[in-house]
Amino acid sequence: MTSPAFAPAAPARGLLALTGDDRAAFLQGLVSNDVRLLSPARALWAALLTAQGKYLQDFFLLQSGETVLIEGEGARLADLKRRLSIYKLRAKIALEDVSASWEVFVGWDGGAAEAFGLREAGQAAPIGAGLVYLDPRRPSLGIRVVTPVGSGSALLSAQGFVSGAWEDWEDRRLAEGVPDGSRDLIPEKSILLENGFDELGGVAWDKGCYIGQELTARTKYRGLIKKRLMPVAIDGDLPPPGTIVTSPDGGEAGEIRSGRGARALAVMRFEALDSHKILTAAGARVTALPPAWLHRPQG
User: Fold this and answer.
1) Each residue's pLDDT tens digit, 254-273
2) CATH fit for domain 226-299, picks 3.30.1490, 3.30.460, 3.10.450, 2.40.30
3) 0.85 cut: is pTM over it?
4) What is the overall mean pLDDT for the chain?
């Protein structure tokens, strides 16, 4: 059996620590998922939106003792802290960037989840002084590990994990069609339901109000989704993010997002897929590969 592999996620990922008596209530009124479900045994994936329901940030939420750890994009962590702090008002909370004292790893293959008894998406368990959890979006993405700096590699090695390459995990993410923050979603423009947040467990429909909730719900119940982020195969040179995918008549069929090698993610229009025409982007042929988990609206 192949040994499970692990790779550090820094500097791509960083961590905020949220403490204080009002930490859960504070988050509950802001983010797209139901923070009442958060516990030391369960991690969540959630997003922060504009009042118009447009994407700002997405992140994982973990509970470590009396602290909520927020794992977000490393390069945009200061922006996330700033945006959350705007809503502090009189809430009894404190928010701190703890990226220098905590580290993040991903682990995959070879029974990575089974090594820690994890079976369900989002399920979490202790590892040393940190936490390990099965990716809340797709269990096939493997585990994520958050530990104090300097301890993660040894803890994973002790469980039989071997050092791997971040690019191998990235290939897995691209094949699954799972977005990676602002590499795939455009802040203040993208909407969650065009980018898999419903099927991937990033939205709770029965939690009540949060910023952007009304327009997110309206989009779902009116069936207004006409395009979706999905994997695409690239035959030719990988087009840069933002490249428009076109049909033979020059019509816009989609737009390339993140990618590597012969695989990328792209926001694709359903009508373009239905035409079964050859699609291209910057001279490369583009073939849409909608994942089995993607639910297309009927009608």
Assistant:
1) 999 999 999 999 999 999 88
2) 2.40.30
3) yes
4) 95
DSSP assignment string, 216-257: HHHHHHTT---EEEEEEEEESSPPPTTPEEE-TTS-EEEEEE
Query: d(Cα 136, Cα 22) in Å, to the nearest integer?
Result: 24
Tokens, residue 293: 């988990």
Q: What are phi and psi of 103, to 5 degrees?
A: -130, 155
Going from N- to C-terminal start, the domains of the chain cover 5-176, 226-299
In DSSP notation, 140-191 reads GG-EEEEEETTTHHHHHHHTT-EE--HHHHHHHHHHHT---GGGTS-TTT--
Q: Which residue has the tokens 């109000």?
A: 209
How far from 243 is each of 107, 237, 280, CA to CA, in Å?
31, 12, 10
| Structure letter (DSSP) for residue 56 | E
Pick one of 3.30.1360.120, 3.20.20.70, 3.40.605.10, 3.40.109.10 as the CATH number of 5-176: 3.30.1360.120
* pLDDT tens-digit readout, 68-83: 999 999 999 999 999 9
Residue type at position 66: E
Cis bond before residue 11 (omega within 30° of 0)? yes
